[in-house]
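Reopening closed ticket. The problem is back. First fold of the pair:
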Amino acid sequence: MNYELLCNKVISIVRLTGNFIRKEAMQFDLNKIEYKGLNDMVSYVDKTAEQKLVQNLEKLIPDAGFLTEEKTINREGKTYKWIIDPLDGTTNFIHGIPTYAISVALYEDGIPVVGVVYELNRAEMFYAYKGGKAYLNKKGIKVSDNPDLKSSLLATGFPYYEFDKQAQYVQLLTEMMQKSHGVRRIGAAAVDLVYVACGRFDAFFEYNLQQWDFAAGCYIIQQAGGEIFDFSGGSAYFDKREIVATNGKLSNEMLTAIKKYF
């Protein structure tokens, strides 16, 4: 498998789908919103974008499995699986807030080999592939060198359902606000993660994520020299759906703080 060539083909597919989303953003009708659950919105844009992605990705590896947010197709594959979020940051998109992205990852025997995140508003294509590094618009990227929390800018997400851990989260957030340059909440986990990968953020933490939110972003961070953990410091983040992503230098401080509350 030529992973670089495959990644370039994925980038072309993602860019094409991004053109559709960008066009729809200019004429989006709020009356076309649907609700999948509490505060969990979706539109025809998400669904159509996912259909376009699946249709074209199937041509690259016909027998690959799929895990998709809008359930256009969900099936197991023997070796390969695509994990897709056609529009991460749907709430931002619906309200006209300019931060949202397409996220596509390819796993081979359970291991990530390609990750692509396309932030549409700044036309920033983040990607990584097996045997390569991490890139932004064809330029290599790496995580920051900030050595400690007090010199760092952090990112997180707020829970919009399953509020049973909200009190713990607020305590953690309070500590992080006091120990760092600040905490940002952009509203698109895929974007938060790739911003860690290119050094804009120094670390990111969130729980209640879905696998399609972070599959590509986590891989790009790892290829950019960063580290990914679950809240216990282990490697089960994919199953637990909780993420601590750092530049590698903040890992101990971040985990020490998180373990106080989670």
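Second fold of the pair, where the issue appears:
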Amino acid sequence: MTRVFALDPDDWPIWRELRLRALEDAPEAFASTLAEVLERDTEKHWRAAVTAPMVPFVAESDGAPAAMGRLMWREDHDAPVELISVWVAPEHRGRGVGGTLVTTAVEHLAIHHPRTRLLLAVVETNAPARALYSRCGFAVIGRNPDDDAELLMEHGAP
């Protein structure tokens, strides 16, 4: 059984555990490296990672942390919200955990900020992630102007 929930700042150890695993497992999928993150491995850093303007979500499968992702708001409140830092632990892939996590984040945004655009960037060669996002209602809208290896996807785009 999969349960998805939002973290609060006191839950930072859960986020830390998943983020370090993600950076070790899929370094090409993230802007920061494991070494960079370990240089700032403090409670203050991790609390900031799970505090506004971020809304972090964790999926648990059979009681164990299995996936993570965050909604991130920009200072310009008219700007789209971004879904970032999505990762599913290898032992939980292919079991619907990622889809449940992404769907929960999409539903959270729709409830709390209706009509707000939701974007994400995905490495073009990451076919499993692209397929997950497509199943969850995202469509490619172009290349990421900040990283030519990534595609931008928008939820609900034609």
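Update: turned out to be a display glitch only; the data is intact. The mean pLDDT is 95. Strands lie at 2-6, 54-61, 64-72, 81-88, 118-123, 138-144, 147-155. Please close again.
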